[in-house]
Automatic annotation (TrEMBL):
Residues 38-190 form the Dienelactone hydrolase domain. Signal peptide: none annotated. It comes from the Eukaryota. GO terms for molecular function: hydrolase activity. This is Dienelactone hydrolase domain-containing protein. The lineage of its organism: Eukaryota, Fungi, Fungi incertae sedis, Mucoromycota, Mortierellomycotina. Gene3D superfamilies: alpha/beta hydrolase. It comes from Dissophora globulifera.
Amino acid sequence: MSLTGACCNTPPNNDAHWHNKGVNVTLSREIAGDKRSTYRTGPKDSKRGLIAIYDIFGYHPTTHQFFDRIAESHGGFQLSAPDFFKNGGVKEMGPGVMAWVGENGDYVKNHIGDIIKAAVEDLRKDGCTSFSIFGQCWGAYMAVQASSEEGNPFLASGGPHPSFFSVETTKDTKAPLIILASKDEADMVPIVENLKSKNFPVESFTKRFDNMHHGWTGGRGDWENPEQFKAGLEAVDLLGAYFAKVVAASESKL
């Protein structure tokens, strides 16, 4: 169980040109005595909230574009993407990446769960009544840890090119998963099959992008490349549609 070799050995891409649609704001509640910020985007009148978690490279142009486009898809979502890394994302590639993640990206030690809860609280204050969560790479694993907590509010979880995903690490999720794998990840079908016994209102879903490398929707994505851009837009559409679907299924039960 580890980050992919591609993630550990390849630096992020900074070439994409994108004018951010959202803004950075401070979370209304301090975390462990610190003020923390989040990137907020999407229509402010939407009642559907999304928590987005970047990959180990932190904020990058492609990451912002990905989040902005999802927030505007399928009727719109209020999206909050907290800045979990106080000093920015990974700077040095190579074998030290796992140690960096252990020091800066531990769900409990680095208050990832607490930051997520604070972001949800702010979305709720701004009118959101439903919530889903997703992430990229390490962020997808953080999303699943959040959706595995008792009493969590999330209707769906998952994300593209996940790291640390297995039947064992996803078995406790309280919400269905959408998993968009690249060619660099293991087969995700066994995870989806294992979750069928939970009888979620919407089944978990996976799609493999065999022509994409790990990280193509985040820090390692180059959406100036037409092939990556096309696959990125497909990922946006799949995620937006899935999150809209779980909200509709939840509302139909009321």
